[in-house]
């Protein structure tokens, strides 16, 4: 009798674990869909205009400018910190203040979360700006540059404390 | 089957308890332990096999006992027969005429008529007088009478034999009165008795002893099973794998139980902590996702301005940061529009006279002054 009950409990636990796994997969899919929408907004409204403006001044195509930045390991936050005056002016703009105020929780996201979103961003970029995605994927250190840039943007936009460590 | 039922009764094994559709077998019969991967049916079949094996063994022991008993009975019968033959020899001793060879030769030397008379007279007297040895002593007298008085009739010989027998009887009586009573047993009887004793002591008793020694001895386990008292005692001390909890736990047991409990608790704690961190991470991700979802309509509202600000920001960054392998751009001008837009704009060559504001699209004159008295466009050619 006890053995039978134990067996039934084990079966129920296995069923529960299976259901939890299904729910997790479903949630992950849902999260992925939402993340793709968010990635699209980021790429269309933030990353692409920034690269366009940058390359307008340099007189290069966005792909060429992106390749130069990757090769020189000049992440977006690095450039912004070098031009602190322009950054302050940018952050003081009303639209940007609204956006950063609403998206303030993004300042708490972990490196892992950003890493996970980087993959999604590249996937979405392949669809809407394949030439830029191709540069990030094919250029050595491209993905690392992209990840460093996103992490840096989190820090400069949402006030994450900067830790300047001199590397030998 | 009858043997099996009988054994079940003698071992006082509890009857199976029926609980609904399942049958509960007394755990004492199946060793009170359950191994991993074995079903109750396996245990039941195994106990049944063990019981059958025990029955077969008992039957074989019984068969051997019976064979030995039959052997014993046969030997006993042989001994009895020998004893009877001995006694018969003793009892039949009086019928055998005790005629010596010399006496027989003298009878044989007599003429046939005389010889017949002597034999017939001797036989007549022997049949009349059954007492042992009395007729035998008469035979020599009859032979002597026949030799000395040849031709006499048989009645004369009988009269003579009768007279001699009476004298013999009288003489024996006189001798009995004078002599001490003779021993009852003869030497032959003694010899037979001695032989009997020898057979009994030398043959029967050793055989019986050997049979006794050759009886199959039961093993300790069989003795325990066959003896109800020993069986119950063995059950009490847990010889058959008693699964019931012991009333008195030892300190070691308690320590082991404590350690097991602590280990289970620590595992549970780790599991809960892991689940907590997972849930916290999930909650944070959900919050972040919710924020990003809220940004979606907001970004739609601010799409134009944010897009413009980002482009302007990029241009500003490009003005301050020039990569090493890029030649500086030809001409860059700073645009200040009445819509509020302000930012640099570069051209590979000389800038056109009129350009469109990147923000509102208004036509701006290069080098002109805005409506507020300030220049709308400033040439910042580098």
Note down, in words, how this protein is organized.
The complex is a heterodimer of chains A (168) and B (382). Chain A has 168 residues and is mainly alpha-helical. Chain A has one domain (36-158). Chain A has helices spanning 2-58, 62-71, 76-82, 84-91, 94-102, 111-128, 130-138, 142-158. In chain A, helix 2 (62-71) packs parallel to helix 7, helix 6 (111-128) packs across helix 7 (130-138) and helix 7 (130-138) crosses helix 8 (142-158). Chain A is elongated, with a radius of gyration of 22 Å. Chain B has 382 residues and is mainly alpha-helical. Helices cover 62% and strands 7% of the residues of chain B. Chain B has eleven helices and seven strands. In chain B, the strands form three sheets. Chain B has a three-stranded antiparallel sheet with strand order 4-3-7. Chain B has a two-stranded antiparallel ribbon with strand order 1-2. The longest helix of chain B is centred in the first third of the chain and has 52 residues, at 40-91. The radius of gyration of chain B is 68 Å and the shape is rod-shaped. The two termini of chain B are 118 Å apart. The interface between A and B is large, with 48 and 47 residues.
Layout of secondary structure:
The complex is a heterodimer of chains A (168) and B (382).
Chain A: H1 2-58, H2 62-71, H3 76-82, H4 84-91, H5 94-102, H6 111-128, H7 130-138, H8 142-158
Helix pairs in contact in A: 1-2, 1-6, 2-7, 3-8, 6-7, 6-8, 7-8
Chain B: H1 2-10, E1 17-19, E2 22-24, H2 40-91, H3 101-109, H4 112-128, H5 138-148, H6 154-178, H7 187-213, H8 220-226, H9 228-236, H10 251-301, H11 303-320, E3 331-336, E4 342-347, E5 354-356, E6 363-365, E7 377-378
Antiparallel strand pairs in B: 1-2, 3-4, 3-7, 5-6
Helix pairs in contact in B: 2-7, 4-5, 4-6, 5-6, 8-9
């Amino acid at each position: 009798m006890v053995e039978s009950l134990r067996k039934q409990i084990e079966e129920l636990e296995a069923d529960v674990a299976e259901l939890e796994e299904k729910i997790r997969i479903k949630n992950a899919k849902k999260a992925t869909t939402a993340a793709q929408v968010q990635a699209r907004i980021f790429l269309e409204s933030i990353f692409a205009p920034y690269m366009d403006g940058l390359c307008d001044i340099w007189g290069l195509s966005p792909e060429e400018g992106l390749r130069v930045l990757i090769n020189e390991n000049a992440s977006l936050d690095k450039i912004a910190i070098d031009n602190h005056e322009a950054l302050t002016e940018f952050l003081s703009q009303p639209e940007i203040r609204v956006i950063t105020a609403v998206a303030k929780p993004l300042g708490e996201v972990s490196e892992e979360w950003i890493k996970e979103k980087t993959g999604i961003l590249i996937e979405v970029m392949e669809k809407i700006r394949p030439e830029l995605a191709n540069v990030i994927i094919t250029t050595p250190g491209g993905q690392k540059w992209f990840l460093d840039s996103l992490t840096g943007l989190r820090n400069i936009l949402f006030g994450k404390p900067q830790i300047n460590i001199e590397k030998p | 089957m009858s043997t099996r039922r009988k054994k079940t009764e003698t071992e006082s094994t509890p009857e199976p308890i029926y609980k609904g559709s399942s049958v509960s077998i007394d755990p004492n019969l199946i060793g009170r332990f359950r191994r991993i991967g074995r079903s109750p049916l396996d245990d039941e079949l195994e106990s049944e096999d063990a019981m059958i094996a025990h029955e077969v063994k008992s039957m074989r022991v019984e068969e051997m006992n019976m064979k030995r008993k039959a052997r014993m009975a046969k030997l006993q019968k042989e001994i009895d027969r020998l004893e009877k033959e001995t006694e018969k020899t003793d009892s039949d001793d009086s019928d055998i005429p005790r005629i010596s060879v010399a006496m027989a030769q003298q009878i044989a030397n007599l003429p046939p008529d005389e010889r017949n008379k002597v034999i017939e007279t001797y036989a007549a007297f022997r049949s009349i007088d059954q007492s042992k040895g009395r007729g035998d002593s008469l035979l020599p007298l009859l032979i002597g009478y026949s030799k000395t008085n040849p031709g006499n009739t048989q009645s004369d010989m009988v009269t003579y034999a009768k007279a001699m027998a009476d004298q013999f009887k009288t003489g024996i009586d006189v001798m009995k009165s004078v002599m001490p009573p003779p021993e009852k047993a003869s030497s032959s009887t003694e010899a037979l008795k001695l032989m009997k004793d020898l057979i009994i002591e030398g043959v029967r008793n050793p055989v019986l002893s050997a049979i006794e020694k050759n009886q199959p001895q039961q093993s300790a386990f069989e003795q325990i099973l066959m003896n109800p008292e020993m069986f119950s005692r063995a059950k009490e001390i847990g010889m058959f794998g008693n699964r019931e909890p012991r009333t008195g736990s030892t300190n070691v047991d308690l320590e082991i139980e404590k350690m097991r409990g602590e280990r289970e608790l620590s595992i549970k704690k780790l599991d809960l902590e892991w689940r907590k961190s997972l849930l916290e991470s999930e909650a944070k991700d959900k919050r972040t996702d919710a924020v990003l979802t809220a940004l979606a309509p907001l970004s739609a509202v601010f799409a134009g301005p944010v897009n413009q600000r980002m482009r302007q920001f990029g241009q500003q960054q490009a003005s301050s940061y020039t990569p090493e392998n890029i030649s500086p751009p030809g001409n860059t001008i700073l645009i200040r529009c009445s819509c509020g837009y302000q930012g640099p704009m570069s051209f590979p060559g000389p800038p056109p006279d009129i350009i469109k504001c990147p923000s509102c699209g208004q036509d701006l004159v290069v080098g002109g002054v805005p409506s507020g008295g300030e220049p709308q466009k400033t040439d910042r050619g580098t």
